[in-house]
């Protein structure tokens, strides 16, 4: 006859998992889906399932060896710092664990990238209103996302709610006396809002209004020049630190 579970066994079965007790190798062994295969300058992003609970692992060691060794810890530190600063916000995943200096684990949100909603009916007006609310919420907490113009960083849940991921490029407001940083922060907040305009133009152009923010209006010519300098720095670091084979796939 099967024995009745003890009180302690029952408690353990309903207690949420302590994700911090798992090593990176153990977490990777429990991977069930790969959202993004690492390589070049890109990390592995994978779904981890343990005892029926799910979390997402972002592991910079999936990038090319030199890139992972030199840049991986910086990217991991940046993204975990942003998630820590946004603990109070529902707009982004929760940070669950940092198994080593190149990887972190975050809460899983059942969702699809906004570009991959095939059969899901979305009320775009409600969606974009909520997206703007969420973006303004993280700005209030002192963080500009700074990579929302890449639509793969906006996820949509089955209930039509936005979730923002990939905070590695974030910019923080900084101290009150730091006027330069404040000025830049406000510009980056505008860039975040311009991502909404970009997505509206693609998915629901009828919702674009005069109040929507357009990128050219934010920074003018100097801003566009700064952007292309940034893109060049990224290209150069990629060609120095990653292999040709993975660069071509990237
Ligand atoms: N917390 C999460 N919950 C559910 N899915 C997630 C989560 N985090 C990431 N993903 C999935 O993994 C994908 C890649 O994540 P992320 O953008 O952080 O990595 P990336 O290396 O920047 O990839 P990309 O270059 O494609 O943007 C997301 O577009 C999303 O589909
Ligand atoms: Mg991304």
Strand order of the main beta sheet, please? 1-2-3-5-4
Number of strands: 10
Briefly note the CATH topology name of the largest domain: Transferase(Phosphotransferase), domain 1
Listing every helix as H and every strand as E from the N terminus to the C terminus, the arrangement reads HHEEEHHEEEHEEEEHHH
Shape: globular
Task: Supply the key terms.
binds magnesium ion; binds adenosine-5'-triphosphate; 10 strands; Phosphorylase Kinase, domain 1; 250 residues; alpha+beta; globular; five-stranded antiparallel β-sheet; Transferase(Phosphotransferase), domain 1
Task: Describe the protein in words.
With 250 residues, the protein is α+β, with helices and mostly antiparallel strands. The protein has two domains: 7-107, Phosphorylase Kinase, domain 1 (2-Layer Sandwich); 112-214, Transferase(Phosphotransferase) domain 1 (Transferase(Phosphotransferase), domain 1). The chain is 43% helix and 17% strand. It has helices spanning 7-14, 24-29, 65-70, 72-85, 124-140, 179-203, 216-241, 244-249; strands spanning 31-36, 44-50, 53-59, 95-100, 103-107, 112-113, 143-144, 154-156, 162-164, 171-172. The protein has a five-stranded antiparallel β-sheet. A three-stranded antiparallel β-sheet has the order 6-8-9. It has a two-stranded antiparallel sheet with strand order 7-10. A hairpin with a 7-residue loop joins strand 1 (31-36) and strand 2. Helix 5 runs antiparallel to helix 6. The radius of gyration is 20 Å and the shape is globular. Bound molecules: adenosine-5'-triphosphate and magnesium ion. The site of adenosine-5'-triphosphate has 19 residues, from strand 1 and strand 3. Residues 150, 152-153, 166 line the site of magnesium ion.
